[in-house]
Amino acid sequence: MDSMAEFDETCPLAEGDFAAVASIQAHILEDCPRCLLLYTIARSVTDAADIYIQDAIQAYGTSLLVIREGRDNEDYKVWDLFAAADSPKLVPDLQHRVLVGDFSLRESLVRAKTWMSDCVNGHDTCKPSLAGSLPKRVLDVAGNTVRLVETDGQSEDYLALSHCWGDSRPPCLTVQATLARNMREIPWETMPNTFRHAIEVTRDLGFRYVWIDCICIIQDDADDWRVEASKMASIYQNAYLTLCAASARSDDGGLWPAEAVAFSQAVHIEHAGMTYTVYYRHRDNTSAAHFSWVGESEWSTVKEFCPVVSRGWTFQERLLSPRLLYFSQGEILWECGERTACECCFHEEDGSSRYMAQTRVLGDILRQMVQSPSQEAIARYWHRLVSFYSQLDLTFGKDVLPALSGLAKVCAAVRPGDTYLAGLWRGGLVEELCWAVRDYDGKSKRPEVWRAPTWSWAAVRQRVWYPKDDSVQTYTRVVSAWTELAGPDPTGEVTAGAVVLRGPAREGVIVTGPGATFDVAVGPLTLTCRSDSPPDATVSFGGDTKVLCLRVKTAGPDTLREDFILVLLEKEEVERSYRRVGMATPSTKESEECWLGEECREMEITVV
After folding, report:
1. pLDDT tens digits for range 301-314
2. Where is the Heterokaryon incompatibility domain positioned along the sequence (predicted)?
């Protein structure tokens, strides 16, 4: 049915634009159920006098109430409107949805089994295959006991768990002192709620094995940890299904809440001799709880509702898994290569690009990277993954590279012959060096514990980005580059590294800063540089601090062409050895004269 067919020409909502609440209130007297519906809910969520209301059914394909305070205010809030299943609808385009919040494991797992069966039997993209090889250790949950078992890598189906550890360190963790006990039996009372729930779900779905990182890896054995952590890509790729504790901030939180969650509010509306119950919920909170792709300003809301998406380790776990079952606030959600679904039907009905699930978008980037025949395109996809990953939280800064190693291995498979260097790729290293800090929150500084060379984005504790990948001309070449690995994993933790670069360079003097930016006087030009970090114990700018400006490349269209200039601070103890402190991107036209004359010279330098 055409939703607009229910409007008469005098309805203030008929044009699909914002209407003053007073005009909507007046039109209720004309027996307009739509005005009655929107006015009633608007007054339930705000008592502001000067508000404007829009019915966004045309724009979004579902019943949404949009409210803004003041005619010219660009800020607005959005609410989903719906009716419970099998209940009468006040207006025809009000959709039926399942009410969630009072979690029923039995009913939820019935839906999960349907989604899983549809995926395995009908989705070509998800590439169902024979059972994957079991990881070195898994939990055997058959019967009424739970025990850790070592495998021979035999082919068996297993589940994996993605979760936030939090601050808890439960007694079931496997360390050298508990390994033998855990191999015999893991006492139920030693396990936190999230692990118990994961075991219950594994059994109810008909599986025998589940992989939980902190039990299946010996936590105080550095060698075992490095070896097993390096296998993350295959562990999650081969898992039949990954269970995700989306809303739990720690392992004590569980997969589902201990008490019912008030996910929606209800209003009861009298019209034409009948009582209609209509439910509403704030759209931003709903989007966040469904891991939807919201703007950067809503990132804090996403982290509040689903802390799992803010953790560095869970990033690759979610992207590498072929199928994910999320346990969110009051309901379960499903994601695979071809489908995003949830119990309340939010994703089924609102699967447009505006509200596409976050993991689905990032997963598409990963798939495009793997399938691309172009090395330039592969590099761009990698940069997008790095940019998102770099904003995520890690309990231990040294994990910045291990927590991305699974995705790095996937990328390495489509970059044959290339070498991975602390988050960058040797084959396009000139481009790879041109990252910049994107979001500066005033808190960032170089980690107290060294974790990567200064030329790597992994050295900073802040979100980074690659401003332009389309080089027009490169001026600097890589003479050599190396990293020293902490263990056998070529994509894992590093203990040292350096790049030797040769290109046009010129001395400059820091004249203002440091902070989010600082200014460098280079001959007749003052460069505004993005700081990699504010000053700390390792990088401190005094008055008239001299730096070296290395012209790396020029990029961008003709009218917006920019130079990319590495700003380097010389290490006092080693001549011509530098550390990176920032990046400048002036217009090429503006900076061209800096690179003319005797002050600019070809130099070979080492950056560590």
Report:
1. 667 777 888 899 99
2. 158-317
Residue in 492, 483, 502 with CA at minimum distance from that of residue 426: 483
Give 439: exposed, middle or buried? Use CB within 10 Å, 0-12, 13-18, 19+.
Answer: middle
Q: Residue 578 corresponds to which tokens in the numbers above?
A: 């530098």
- Check whether residue 60 and residue 134 sit in a common domain: no
The residue behind tokens 């855990």 is: 182
Give the pLDDT confidence score for residue 68 in this predicted structure. 84
In a domain, 270, yes or no: no
C-beta separation of 393 from 300 below 8 A: no
Per the structure, how many domains does the chain have? 3
Q: Is residue 51 part of a domain?
A: yes
- What are the DSSP E strand ranges found in 125-263? 137-140, 147-150, 159-162, 209-211, 241-245
Amino acid at 431: E
Contact indicator for 24, 53 with CB cutoff of 8 Å: yes
What share of the chain has pLDDT > 70, as a percent?
Answer: 85
Which of 68, 97, 126 terminates a domain? The answer is 97
Query: Cα(40)–Cα(21) distance, rounded to whole angstroms?
Result: 11
Is residue 353 domain-shared with residue 217, that is, in the same domain?
yes
> Do 86 and 161 sit in the same domain of this protein?
no
- Parallel/antiparallel/unpaired status of strands 601-607 and 577-584: parallel
Regarding whether 581 and 531 lie in a shared domain, the answer is yes
Distance CA 424, CA 5 (A): 57
Cis peptide before 514 (omega within 30 of 0): yes
| Contact between residue 115 and residue 334 where contact means Cβ atoms under 8 Å apart | yes
Question: Is there a single domain that holds both residue 117 and residue 61?
Answer: no
> Among the three residues 97, 132, 149, which one is the final residue of a domain in this structure?
97
Count of positions (residues) in the chain:
608
Residues 57 and 87 in one domain: yes
3-state SS, 385-424, equals HHHHHCCCECCCHHHHCHHHHHHHHHHHHCCCCCCEECCE
Measured N-to-C along each axis, helices 405-413 and 375-389 cross at an angle, to the nearest 10 degrees, of 170
Does some domain include residue 266?
no
- What are the tens digits of pLDDT across the range 511-567? 876 677 888 999 888 999 998 886 543 455 655 789 999 999 999 887 789 999 999
70 and 212 assigned to the same domain: no
Specify the higher pLDDT residue, 371 or 410: 410
Distance between CA 319 and CA 314 in Å, rounded? 9
Q: Decide: 465 and 438 in contact? Cβ < 8 Å.
A: yes
Give bridge partners of residue 245 from the DSSP assignment.
Answer: 327
CA distance 136 to 232: 12
Cα separations (Å) of 9 from 12, 13, 32?
A: 8, 9, 11
Please report which helix (H) or strand (E) contains residue 93, including its range: none
Domain with 457 in it = 428-607
* Statement to judge: residues 72 and 126 lie in one domain: no
What is the H or E stretch that residue 373 is in?
none
